[in-house]
Automatic annotation (TrEMBL):
Residues 30-41 have a biased composition (Pro residues). Residues 1-44 are annotated as: Disordered. Residues 12-22 have a biased composition (Basic and acidic residues). This is Uncharacterized protein. The lineage of its organism: Eukaryota, Viridiplantae, Streptophyta, Embryophyta, Tracheophyta. It comes from Colocasia esculenta (Wild taro).
Amino acid sequence: MASRGRRGGASAREDEPRHDDQAEQQAPAPRGPVHPPPPPVDYGVFMQGLVQAMQTQAHTHAALQAQLEAQVE
């Protein structure tokens, strides 16, 4: 069987449109308003806030634990 440069058993005619090209497919149009990308994140400020939140949580946990132990005694 002579091959015409295409893989697979089916041979396509020259005048038929090709459906196997992924590059020709277009993405669907976005729905709703298109927003600009968000501003860059300052990770230093983010980490400071995260550390502060964790410290506050630890302090609150310790205070509640002390309060619970005082109630038990």
